[in-house]
Design goal:
This protein has 790 residues and is α+β, with helices and mostly antiparallel strands. The chain contains eleven helices and 31 strands.
Length: 790
């Protein structure tokens, strides 16, 4: 008997490693093909022109002058225009880039890999607002001569002010954007694209408009031409100089002297302002703003909204305006752009408009600022480096035309949340052309490696509930943000190996990837051990996921997955001498079940400093393709079902929160067991063993509080208590619905140690009558899990 069991065990291991090797080879080949196809997209430098290691290039950019482009301006505008400084968007030093603690991790939100890094303090902006150009137009110099003398003291307007700082650091991962929401599903057929756990995190930083503070500046000094010196050999008094020699007459140079600028009139008749070159604002509204600045300058200075339209854009009678009043009109339009954070856009009146405006129509030209180049300096960490195009393409995609500071702030915030990036600082300097800027970014990348060891009792007792495993993840194998995942776990009667590879294909975090999982199981629970039931299953998947809305506070994404799942069960090999196909539900005569399905998912998540809401929906279509199992009477490989899941987390106070989550599944016909809804276990129905309830249709709802017991700040240790209440039910399609309703309540303890060790212990008390004669811990309503992330 012992030798027979030993031979069975050897055969099981042999089948497992044979299946694992086959799946590994297929996954590697598919992943290599995806990587080769994605390589041309991410290895082009495109807009990223210069290397910041070049000191000469950096000095050249920082030494560019930043005069104003407007034809003239009031005293404050002239003071800003005579000396500008580069715009610096830097990061405050990071206090902690470790992973967030898992004290708020929601059950059912499994995280085999971290979805994002901690939310760091907001960037600090040091900007001198104004319009960048290489030279001042002649009209501006002429207006300045006519209007007012040069000031003797011209303080610079320094508009540096940090963005809103993070408020508190309670809810460590509450606000982290997920890369996927599908792992929220806790049915017997879990999705492979997981939702990250929601834990405590500091609130996201929101942009705020920087204010201006004056800073001293060297006065402009007007220099006069020096007097001609007296010649040392001049003739003394009373001595007659000899007649000069006759020299040939040289040609006159008067033809080569450029004509002088025409003098500007003291008064200009204006019937109407016309604004050209604006794509952000309505030109008629800008013309009305310019007219309002001329008619009511005091009201403009006290207005909270500089872009508010206060007067019509035309006059019934002409106005006689001085050049300084015209300058005030163009400055009002420029200040409207600056108020909306278009910091390198400007407006000016051409000289010809002042000297040739016979019809009384004055044209104000708007030059909207552009981003000339993006320079990326990457600070490498770990074995695999991240290409600069990964960062540059995301900055370029987020920053539109014309250039707006708010777009840059949002792009930097999204990159801060990227798990591949540890720190980012940016600087804006003037470009080489009028109205352009250059963005310099310095990025410190993460090493991209993650490892998690785990121990729990979250497997079915029939194959052994005590599960031990390891999950490994390495990013940037090709330097394009790709990620390889490898996992292995086992129980007394099962082995499972998983492999996944994903690669981004665009700057909006669109991702394609493949997953493979193989599992071998033996039933070890009495009295079924005598049946010698063995099963083998393999799951292949290729997916595409694309966010359509992606901001620091909201994400909406669509996903498409093609899955192929095969399983085979057999029994009585010991008694019969050879394995006999197990007559499972929906299986064919060989005991095999083959499912080919197309699954279309929708994900939405929104977050703020107090709460987070996550919703997930997926439609699955079982197809008669690739040899799918087809039976005369369902269940088989043809089906249509919908799965939905939601979660709401609300912060109640420091280290305290309320969590509400739920699942639902609806099917159009009887389903095979792998597609059925599951109730029971630590993630869905505490108090009952895993898979206590398997139905074609079902629902689940859970609510729990997480309240702090104690915290040790110096060691970063947090202990929480979690009272909970679970309720759910299910029914089958067909002639016998078999409706069941189960409820439970209980208490849990959650421990988090320095973001490295996370442990949970739950005791569930069933409130519904349900026969359970097992002796496993799950039958007593006890569940535990321990995760260690070195």
């Amino acid at each position: 008997m012992t030798s027979t069991l030993a031979s069975d065990s050897t055969a099981t291991r042999r089948r497992f490693w044979r299946s694992s090797t086959k799946g590994l080879v297929i996954s590697v080949l598919t992943g290599t093909m995806l990587a080769v196809l994605a390589r041309p997209v991410f290895w082009q430098e495109g807009l990223y022109l210069e290397d910041l290691d070049s000191t000469e290039a950096r000095d050249r950019q920082r030494d560019l002058p930043l005069p104003r482009i407007s034809s003239g301006q009031d005293r404050q505008g002239r003071q800003r225009g005579q000396a500008q400084q580069p715009i610096r968007v830097g990061r405050l030093p990071s206090a902690n880039r470790d992973r967030p603690p898992a004290d708020a991790a929601a059950e059912g939100f499994t995280t085999p890999e971290p979805a994002s890094a901690d939310i760091e303090p907001s960037p600090t902006l040091q900007i001198s607002r104004g319009f960048y150009q290489e030279r001042r137009p002649a009209a501006a110099d002429a207006l300045q001569q006519v209007d007012t003398p040069q000031p003797t003291d011209t303080p610079e307007a320094d508009t540096s002010q940090p963005l809103q700082q993070s408020i508190t650091q309670s809810l460590t991962a509450l606000l982290l954007p997920p890369t996927d929401l599908s792992s929220v599903l806790s049915s017997s057929a879990p999705l492979t694209a997981p939702i990250p756990e929601l834990a405590e995190a500091a609130p996201l930083p929101f942009p705020s408009s920087p204010s201006t503070t004056p800073s001293p500046e060297d006065p402009a000094v007007a220099t006069a031409p020096p007097e001609r010196p007296l010649s040392s050999d001049a003739a003394p008094a009373g001595v007659t100089e000899p007649a000069p020699l006759e020299m040939p007459e040289e040609p006159s140079l008067s033809d080569n002297v450029p004509p002088q600028t025409a003098a500007l009139p003291d008064q200009i008749q204006v019937n109407q302002f016309v604004v050209t070159g604006s794509t952000v604002f309505d030109p008629e509204d800008l013309a009305a703003i310019a007219l309002s600045a001329v008619l009511e300058p005091a009201g403009l200075e006290t207005a909270e909204d500089l872009c508010e339209v206060r007067e019509p854009a035309s006059l019934s009678a002409p106005l006689s305006l001085t050049p300084s009043q015209l300058v005030r009109a163009s400055d009002a339009i420029e200040q409207c752009y600056i108020q909306e954070n278009y910091i390198n856009s400007g407006a000016f009146i051409a000289e010809t408009e002042l000297t040739e405006a016979d019809d009384g129509v004055v044209e104000i030209s708007v030059v909207e600022g552009q981003l000339e180049a993006i320079n990326i300096e990457m600070i490498r960490s770990g074995l695999f480096g991240l290409n600069s195009s990964y960062v540059g393409s995301r900055l370029e995609a987020a920053i539109g035309d014309p250039f707006n500071l708010d777009d840059l702030i949002e792009a930097v915030q999204l990159l801060e949340l990227d798990p591949l990036i540890t720190q980012i600082s940016t600087e804006i300097v003037p470009g080489t052309q009028t109205g352009t800027s250059v963005l310099n970014a310095r990025v410190v990348q993460d090493d991209g490696f993650d490892m998690t060891l785990f121990l729990d009792n979250d497997r079915s007792p029939s194959v052994g509930s005590l599960r031990r495993g390891i999950a490994l993840s390495q990013a940037n194998l090709l330097g394009i943000g790709d990620r390889l995942n490898l996992g292995y776990n086992f129980t007394e009667g099962s082995n499972e190996l998983s492999l996944g590879y994903a690669v981004p294909i665009n700057a909006r975090n669109g991702t394609v990837g493949v997953n493979f999982t193989t599992t071998n199981s033996d039933v070890i629970e009495d009295p079924f051990t005598v049946l010698d039931i063995e099963s083998e299953s393999r799951n292949y998947e290729i997916f595409y996921r694309q966010p359509l809305i992606l901001t620091p506070t909201e994400e909406f994404a669509l996903s498409l997955r093609a899955t192929r799942r095969t399983s085979q069960a057999q029994f009585l090999e010991t008694l019969a001498g050879e394995p006999i196909p197990f007559p499972g539900i929906g299986a064919d005569a060989e005991g095999r079940t083959r499912i080919t399905a197309l699954r279309f998912g929708q994900e939405w998540i929104t977050r703020n400093s107090q709460e987070v809401i996550a919703l997930f929906s997926e439609f699955s279509f079982g197809l008669d393709a690739l040899g799918a199992t087809i039976q005369p009477i369902p269940p088989d490989g043809r089906f249509l079902l919908w799965r939905g899941q939601g979660q709401w987390v609300r912060r109640l106070g420091p280290d305290s929160l309320f969590l509400l989550r739920g699942n639902i599944q609806l099917a159009d016909r009887p389903l095979v067991p792998n597609e059925q809804f599951s109730f029971g276990g630590q993630r869905a129905g505490r108090g009952y063993r895993l898979n206590t309830l398997l139905r074609d249709n079902g629902w689940f709802l859970s609510g729990e509080f997480r309240l702090p017991l104690f915290r040790v700040p110096e060691d970063d240790i947090l202990m929480q208590v979690s009272p909970f209440f679970d309720v759910g039910g299910g029914w089958n399609d067909g002639d016998v619905p078999d409706t069941t309703f189960l409820t439970s309540t209980g208490l849990g303890l959650i421990l988090d140690v320095n973001d490295t060790i996370s442990a949970r212990l739950d005791w569930g008390i069933p409130l519904s009558d349900f026969d359970s004669t097992g002796t496993d811990l799950q039958d007593s309503g006890i569940y535990f899990s321990i995760q260690v992330t070195p």
